[in-house]
Amino acid sequence: MSTVAIEPLLHYFRRETTGLRCRGQAVRSCSLNCCSPKKFLSYRASYGNLRLGRTRSSVRASSPGDTALVETPEFTSDGVFFCETFPLTRTETVEGKIFVRLDQAKDQKNWQLTVGCSLPGKWILHWGVTYIDDNGSEWDQPPENMRPPGSISIKDYAIESPLKKYSERDMFHEVKIDIDSNNAIAAINFVLKDEETGAWYQHKGRDFRVPLVDCPMDDGNFVGAKRGFSIWPGLSNLLLQTQALPSKSQDNNSESIDIKQESRQLEAFYEERPIAKHIVIGNSITVSVQKCPNTAKFLLYLETDIPEVVVHWGVCRDDEKNWEIPPAPHPPGTTIFKNKALRTSLQPKEDGNGCSGSFTVDEELVGFLFVLKLNENHWLKCKGNDFYVPLSSSLTAQAGQLKEEASESALVSSEAIEAIQEDSPTAYTDGIINEIRNLVSDISSEKSRTTKTKEAQESILQEIEKLAAEAYSIFRSSVPTFPEQTALKSEEQKDPPKISSGTGTGYEILLQGFNWESHKSGRWYVELKEKAAEVASLGFTVIWLPPPTESVSPEGYMPKDLYNLNSRYGSIDQLKDLVRNLHEVGVKVLGDVVLNHRCAHYQNQNGIWNIFGGRLNWDDRAVVADDPHFQGRGNKSSGDNFHAAPNIDHSQEFVRKDIKEWLNWLRKEIGYDGWRLDFVRGFWGGYVKDYLDASEPYFAVGEYWDSLSYTYGEMDYNQDPHRQRIIDWINAAGGTAGAFDVTTKGILHSVLERCEYWRLSDPKGKPPGVVGWWPSRAVTFIENHDTGSTQGHWRFPGGKEMQGYAYILTHPGTPAVFFDHIFSHQGSEISALVSLRNRNKIHCRSLVKITKAERDVYAAIIDEKLAMKIGPGYYEPPSEPKKWSVALEGRDYKVWEAS
């Protein structure tokens, strides 16, 4: 269970280009041979009809002291040694209307609610109802006869209904809900969802409501006519423009309306307001460079499909890439910006499709730097840095890059040899020592992360102490003990202290052993038992089972009686039998425990469901006080509230005592080896540490889920704040558990959907997710029961799953594979990757050297044992000092083993 992350809408024009590395890195240019006139003209045709061979034009020098006319040399296809197309993204705002209308049906007895939106998109109404006198939860599912065609159920409390146009001439996408007067419904609750972007349109995170009965309403989110709500709160902080339609009298002769419904005084209404949506548009700019045979100067030609843009540009004389203004001549209309750069407006092309411009710079210059300016508030850059074009022959540029890559390779190789020695009995402890070195480097780094420095350093120092203790314990356990020594060992001698960190050995590969539909057969435990031997043979060492408790929802995520383990997945005896069989084949078992919330058995004196039964018969002191729906008498919540059930107050001593006893009972009675912790955003990580210290799991992982960072609908390159929040939770839990690496999943989405593989390297050249900062606590994944399966809340890019698995199964961290993927047509490829990881002993702290992170390809070498690449671009690992052989290859991915 999780909060849905919001994805940006993208209309991206994909183009095949040569490799690109941004500021501080060389750009690989085309060789002289590849840019022969014939090939260059073919290249030109692929990039928006790049126009060369322009006629000479008179240009006036822009410096005040230079008034002589100069001529721009003719740019031809001959002698072009560099051609590169850079992808660009920009946003446009589209405005429209959203409306809500309530009017009577044709039979004059019932009513009809219509919600519509005039913007393009795939709009979904996410809605539910509140019944009269129902205080058990905020939302319920409506009766079947109210559900529009195409509706699907979301868990057990909501419906999603698609909006559609009923004819080509319709301006609005809309959906109609028929309201039967015989149903005792007090209100309809809804939010509007754009499936193309993943955005939810609601009011400050709360739901809109249309009341159908007159009752006390102290909530400002109601929509309706003549009910005292002159403003409809909601989207973009814009004012509501309300137009009330004439009310229609109700049918007084109806005998079907029950007593409760007679209190209804519905009136027809119509409300609409403006709504804005940001759409990301994909563009590009092509840069070509040649050397003028007459003047020996460099000629640059820039062309873009953006209709109007200003180039903010300069040059550099060395590899430091410091901007400076080149000497005249400059293009017409060029102005000087703060004596540091020049600004030139590109001129509209004759065909009206974009604009272009020519630039001349001296031969002694090393590089051409530029950024693009659309307006005062919108600049276009390359991965947040300046665009850089090398002004040298292709051979010189390639030689420089090869030298740089060879230097980096030698440096990382020496570190890898020092930190990880193949087949060494201390390889794992050396890996820990290497991680300690990384943490120390993080402390001494001048560029601190966006967090409180003192607290971050204290947390890192604590982690160093734990890692040192763990390394020492493993080292002691690996020292051979001879029989004579065993005989002489005194009773007073004690074994090294047991380190129970909940992070296993570091070599785990996790399988999620269910999907969202697994409960429907009623015998999932039996079905999974039949696959136990196969799961082990596929190379998985740990399996995560579904929530075992009695639950209001059949999937198990609305637990009620925690000690009742007869669920829709099977009986307690079938669960024990399954766990026993998995242990027999060497597979550890994680239980899915829901600690944030619990469904009540009874109502209090106010009719609120907050009194619990069963063995843990808590009263409303166990419910947090700031959950407005369940009137708890506990303390305020230490995290985010989950609105569908009472949120448990873990600050209460009796609650923590009971949960620790329950977890230990599960360990002993069922045989669970560890935990998957649901919705840990709901309570402080310190409580998790308390529970794990008490239950001593072999492995534990928390689901800390929130949205990544976006700007105008485009995912930000820097996701440090997002992964820092996950790191903060792991720190709060004392490092006793790992966390799902949601950051890595989100970045992979953007990488694969938009062909932006450069995103897979952060500014320090490390993996950009949690796995780049704390790999031993990162559980990487691409899909689970929430994001995929039949829910599909945040589905991985279709057809590109194997690229995702090629990434997580070759990299550090603990990879998790989704049940639907391994038992599908992709199963053989995934199992081959699992086998390759196990064979090469890749573990959670393995060393990654990123060798390429460009537009269309990402490549890395792991522990000097594996080389891999994903993306359509070209990559081959260096032939020295290792010899590499292809181990696996599939669509847009490839993995090599060191010979």
UniProtKB/TrEMBL annotation:
Q: Does the keyword Metal-binding apply?
A: yes
Q: What class of enzyme is it?
A: hydrolase
Q: Which cofactor is recorded for it?
A: Ca(2+)
| Record's keyword terms, sorted | Carbohydrate metabolism, Glycosidase, Hydrolase, Metal-binding
Q: Which GO terms describe its molecular function?
A: alpha-amylase activity; calcium ion binding
Glycosyl hydrolase family 13 catalytic domain span: 508-837
Reaction(s) this enzyme catalyzes, per UniProt: Endohydrolysis of (1->4)-alpha-D-glucosidic linkages in polysaccharides containing three or more (1->4)-alpha-linked D-glucose units
What is an annotated GO biological process for this record, any one?
A: carbohydrate metabolic process
InterPro entries linked = A-amylase_bs_C, Alpha_amylase, GH, GH13_cat_dom, Glyco_hydro_b, GWD-like_N_Ig
- For whether the record's keyword set contains Translocase, the answer is no
Could you tell me which residue ranges the Alpha-amylase C-terminal beta-sheet domain spans? Answer: 838-898
Q: What is its EC number?
A: 3.2.1.1
Q: PANTHER family, from UniProt?
A: ALPHA-AMYLASE (PTHR43447)
The entry sums up its family as follows: Belongs to the glycosyl hydrolase 13 family.
Q: What is this protein called?
A: Alpha-amylase
